[in-house]
Amino acid sequence: MADKVEAFVRDVVVPYEKDTRRDHHGAPTDALLMDMRVHARAAGVLTPHIRPDGTHLTQRETAVVLIRSGLSPLGPLACNTGAPDEGNMYLIGHVGTPDLKQRFLKPLVEGTARSAFFMTEPAGWQGAGSDPSMMKTTCRKDGNHWVVNGRKTFITGALGAKVGIVMAASADAETKGGACMFLVDLPDDAIRIDDIPNTIDSSMPGGHATLTLDDLRVPADQMLGHPGEGFKYAQIRLSPARLSHCMRWLGCCIRAQEIATDYACRRTAFGKVLIDHEGVGFMLAENRILIQQCDVMIDWCASVLDGGSLGTVESSMAKVAVSEALMKIADNCVQLMGGTGVTGHTIVEQVFREIRAFRIYDGPTEVHKWSLAKKIKRDWKQANPEHAA
Known about the structure:
By secondary structure, the chain is an alpha+beta fold. It contains 11 helices and 9 strands. Keywords: FAD, Flavoprotein, Oxidoreductase.
């Protein structure tokens, strides 16, 4: 399957990189997305990480497939392996009831709908960002419905999405403060998009919206899981989703390395091809090492998740190590290509922008390091109770 995905991305998707069907933020339009998915469906590579019976590939198997789909920034969109849909499909598949899966998961798996995950909130509102416990969006029970009010920001793909997963803090006495998740049909008049800012990345349709939820009424049977357990479900989604990002962007950096290598082996300066200059050749060598290290880190973390662990610690380590390594790879590719590296003549410039954003979303590097440091301290105190303060 991975070989089929790679052949499809290289032969069919890569030519679409010059397609002008983009919105004013530079992101692919849904028309471009659905056009590519027609070809993916015909090639048998649409949603390749989910088997026909609805079960998922293992995380290690998923890695092999998603890395190949990432060989173009458009590959995950075409193959339906991209964010946020891939993570949302994983969550609904693990937590949703049969009825919810039929109604909300089926169109996502079939690639006929996009989705959005409503968790992050505006900083000026003092809402949930990297700290979900700060969530200000609330939900309260009203008969056989829940009513949701609040604000969300950086909601990837909200514009044009048909399925939403909304996260809110319960205001009910029994579950007060606990998070709840709801599946909603989009668009909904009670969800108002306030702003879609221009951002450094441009690979995901629908942008990253800021929006207001004003008395959004959701039938009680559209709650995902049980009331008050939303934070637990978020971890079910976020740990593998962080790793999936690592997989896809590693694929993009492998392609950027290929483009930079071709450039360095053809371009001459000061009497020899660029790769024969140590300053250039060493950057490509460093990239080769970093690519291998990323592959090993992804495989290790995937093995932990396949072993039945939530893998929050491991996914944090993978997110930090891989995102920082990919940033260096992308930067090296831009640098050694000189002026060409900062133009849109190749995807190298876009890969650099996308990786820069990746270092922030799904938890910036510093938050993951802080979380890991807390774990180190807890482990030390358990091992040294007589010295623990």
